[in-house]
Design goal:
Elements: H1 3-19, E1 26-31, H2 36-52, E2 55-60, H3 67-78, E3 85-88, H4 98-104, H5 123-134, E4 143-147, H6 154-163, E5 167-171, H7 177-185, E6 189-192, E7 211-214, E8 218-220, E9 223-225, E10 236-237, H8 244-262
Parallel strand pairs: 1-2, 1-3, 4-5, 4-6, 6-7, 7-10
Antiparallel strand pairs: 8-9
This protein binds guanine.
Guanine binds near residues 89, 90, 112, 123 and 152.
C-alpha cells in the first residue's frame, strides 16, 4: 500500500467520524511567509480540511508583519471560541522569534503540539511514527539515524524514536563526512530533514533492510524534491512529493480531533 492509499484510508475514517459530530471541528492556519514548501503544505492542509468536513480558515499575513502584530493575532485566536485550534506555519520571516511564537500559542489550541506543555506530539514526527508502525517496521533495539536537529522535526523525532526503544543518533551540519557515512551504514532507519537536494546518494552504503524517511522539500528546476536521491538500494524509501507531507497533514487533523476530545 502506498503512503497515498494509507493516508486516504485513514482520511475516510476521519471523515466518517467528523460527519457524526454535531459541531464540526474548526482550525485556523496562520501563514506569514512565501516559502515554497509552506505554500504547498498550506494548500494541502486546506484541501484536506474540505475533504474531511472540517472548517479551516487561512489567515494570511503580510510578509512584513512584525512580531508584535503576529503575537496580537495569536492572542486573539487563543481566546476565540470559533476555533478549536490553530497553527502558525513555519518558518517565520527573519526578525520573528519562532520559539517565542510557539510559547505564545495556548497549549489547548496548539494543534501542532509545539508548546512544551502540549500533550500532543509535533505532526511530522507523529505522522512518520504512525506510518512506520502501520508498515510493521521493527523499531525496538534497532539503530535510527536522524539527520537534522530542527525543533519541529529532528529533535522531537529523536525523542519519539527513543521512546520506541530505538538506538538514536542525531547527525547534523557539523557532523564529519566520515562519521556521517559510518552511522548511515549501520542504520536500520534513517530520517532525513536537512534541506539539501540529493544529500543521501550512492556515495553512502546502506543496510539493504534500511528504511529511509525523506522529510526534505526542496524546490529545483524539476519541481519539489526531497533530501534523498530516488531509488536508493534500501527496503523502503518514502517519496517526495506524496510522502511525509501527506503524513504530516494527516497527523494535523488527528491532533485537531484529539484537541476537541481533550477540551470537551
Ligand atoms: N513547517 C513545516 N512543517 C510544519 C508543521 O508541521 N507545522 C507548522 N506550523 N509549520 C511547519
Amino acid at each position: 500500500m502506498t503512503i497515498k492509499d494509507y493516508v486516504q484510508n485513514r482520511k475516510d475514517e476521519i471523515k466518517n467520524l467528523v460527519a457524526s459530530l454535531t459541531e464540526k471541528p474548526s482550525i485556523a492556519i496562520v501563514q506569514v511567509n512565501e516559502d515554497a514548501g509552506s505554500n504547498a503544505y498550506v494548500k494541502g492542509k486546506l484541501k484536506d480540511a474540505e475533504q474531511l468536513g472540517i472548517k479551516a480558515e487561512l489567515i494570511k499575513l503580510d510578509i512584513t508583519t512584525s512580531q508584535a502584530d503576529l503575537l496580537k493575532v495569536i492572542a486573539r485566536l487563543n481566546n476565540d471560541p470559533a476555533y478549536d485550534g490553530f497553527i502558525v506555519q513555519m518558518p517565520l520571516p527573519k526578525g520573528i522569534d519562532e520559539e517565542l511564537v510557539k510559547l505564545a500559542i495556548s497549549p489547548e489550541k496548539d494543534v501542532d503540539g509545539f508548546h512544551p506543555l502540549s500533550s500532543l506530539v509535533a505532526c511530522t514526527p507523529q505522522g512518520i511514527l504512525n506510518y512506520l508502525k502501520h508498515k510493521n517496521i521493527p523499531l525496538e533495539g534497532k539503530n535510527a539515524v536522524v539527520i537534522g536537529r530542527s525543533n519541529i522535526v529532528g529533535k522531537p523525532m529523536a525523542k519519539l524514536l527513543l521512546k520506541e526503544n530505538m538506538n538514536v543518533t542525531v547527525l547534523h551540519s557539523r557532523t564529519s563526512p566520515e562519521d556521517m557515512a559510518f552511522y548511515i551504514a549501520h542504520a536500520e532507519l534513517i530520517v532525513i530533514a536537512i534541506g539539501k537536494t540529493a544529500f543521501l546518494d550512492n556515495r553512502f552504503t546502506y543496510k539493504k533492510e534500511a528504511v529511509i524517511v525523506d522529510v526534505g522539500i526542496n524546490r529545483t528546476e524539476e519541481g519539489l524534491v526531497g533530501d534523498a536521491l530516488k531509488n536508493l538500494p534500501v527496503k523502503l524509501q518514502t517519496p517526495v512529493p506524496g510522502g511525509v507531507g501527506l503524513l504530516t497533514r494527516l497527523a494535523l487533523y488527528e491532533n485537531l480531533l484529539k484537541i476537541k476530545d481533550i477540551n470537551g
